[in-house]
């Protein structure tokens, strides 16, 4: 169940007092009737990436090996062309033009889509409006809150886990980002924010799921999977983007804590010390938790 933004799961294990145990946000295990409260053991989730073609990468795995694929393939040819960077495009994108290479020349075909469905049980595919093959009716709309710009106001993804349309609002407009206090370094022309992937994992992945990304790019998906404790596999065909993404991931992983970025539907964690992170029993019982909880790396998705 979900209370005030916190996920609470009733466990099969019993407390020493005989009452049921509950799990809070995959961080704490507690009993509502006595003083039992314990932090879940933290483990580093699997994170395996390769610099290779996505078709070769997926061919290594048996059918339905991955529980959820969240992919962001090239949508259309054009970003790497000279005329795309015209006077309407901001100077920051012009300055980054030298980093735009051949990555947008390999737009996925139906063969890619079929292989993705073979290797994964469920799929979230960004750029679905650019493909001419049949996809699920479910949609995710990322509202980038960048009105009055020459770029798209939103991006669309197909999803086979729902039959409705869900909206995620997160400002992503050139140098302006929703969470300017934890501003992300842009290393890829079509980079998506870590917060978008956290939101997808939080809403559509189950504890213990294996996650696949066939077009790593900036590795925002990999960073989000580590934050949320999911085992992750991914590939990127461009060696330079692969190396840049790996450096970005390692820099994030080297931090003592990784914090959930802020957006309208999330509560922004504060920088508490370990003692302050320990929630009070009264706060747990009401599931309001006055203190925001910073999520450490863990893979205890039982």
Poorly predicted regions? 80-100, 256-302
User: Please, what is the average pLDDT?
Assistant: 75
In angstroms, what separates the terminal alpha carbons?
16 Å
Strand neighbour order, sheet with most strands:
6-15-14-7-8-10-9-11
Which fold does the CATH topology of the domain at 47-254 refer to? Rossmann fold
CATH superfamily membership of the domain at 47-254: Vaccinia Virus protein VP39
Specify Rg, calculated over alpha carbons. 20 Å
Shape annotation: globular
Secondary-structure arrangement, i.e. CATH architecture of the domain at 47-254: 3-Layer(aba) Sandwich
Indicate the percent of residues in helices: 10-25%
Structural class: alpha/beta
Q: What fraction of residues sit in β-strands?
A: 15-25%
At the first level of CATH, the class of the domain at 47-254 is Alpha Beta
Please write the string of helix (H) and strand (E) elements: EEEEEEHEHHEEEEEEHEHEHHH
Characterize the quaternary organization of these chains: single chain
Number of strands: 15
Number of helical segments with 4 or more residues: 8
Describe this structure as you would to a colleague:
The chain is an alpha/beta fold and 302 residues long. It has a domain at 47-254: Rossmann fold (3-Layer(aba) Sandwich). 22% of the residues lie in helices and 23% in strands. The chain has 8 helices and 15 strands. The chain has an 8-stranded mixed sheet. It has a 5-stranded antiparallel sheet with strand order 1-2-3-4-5, with no helix packed on it. Strand 2 and strand 3 (20-24) form a beta hairpin. Helix 5 packs parallel to helix 6. The two termini are 16 Å apart. Mean pLDDT is 75; it is low at 80-100 and 256-302.
């Amino acid at each position: 169940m979900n209370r005030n933004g916190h996920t609470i799961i009733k466990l099969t294990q019993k407390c020493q007092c005989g009452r049921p145990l509950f799990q809070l946000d995959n961080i704490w295990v507690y009993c509502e009737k006595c003083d039992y409260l314990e932090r879940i053991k933290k483990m580093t989730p699997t994170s395996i990436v390769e610099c290779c073609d996505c078709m070769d990468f997926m061919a290594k795995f048996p059918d339905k090996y991955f529980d959820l694929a969240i992919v962001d393939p090239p949508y259309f040819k054009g970003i790497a062309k000279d005329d795309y960077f015209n006077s309407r495009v901001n100077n920051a994108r012009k300055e980054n033009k030298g980093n735009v290479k051949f990555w947008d020349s390999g737009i996925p075909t139906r063969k890619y889509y079929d292989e993705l469905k073979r290797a994964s049980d469920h799929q979230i595919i960004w750029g679905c409006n650019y493909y001419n093959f049949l996809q699920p009716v479910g949609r995710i709309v990322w509202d980038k809150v960048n009105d009055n710009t020459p770029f798209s106001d939103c991006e669309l993804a197909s999803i086979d886990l729902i039959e409705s349309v869900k909206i995620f609002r997160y400002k992503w407009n050139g140098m302006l980002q929703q969470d300017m206090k934890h501003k992300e370094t842009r290393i890829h022309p079509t980079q998506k924010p870590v917060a978008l992937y956290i939101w997808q994992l939080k809403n559509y992945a189950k504890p213990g799921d294996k996650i696949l990304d066939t077009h790593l790019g900036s590795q925002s998906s990999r960073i989000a999977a580590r934050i949320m404790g999911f085992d992750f596999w991914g590939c990127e065909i461009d060696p330079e983007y692969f190396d840049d993404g790996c450096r970005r991931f390692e820099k994030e992983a080297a931090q003592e804590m990784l914090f959930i970025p802020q957006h309208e539907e999330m509560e922004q964690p504060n920088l508490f010390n370990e003692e302050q992170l320990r929630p009070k029993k009264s706060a747990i019982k009401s599931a309001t938790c006055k203190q925001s909880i910073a999520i450490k790396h863990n893979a205890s998705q039982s």
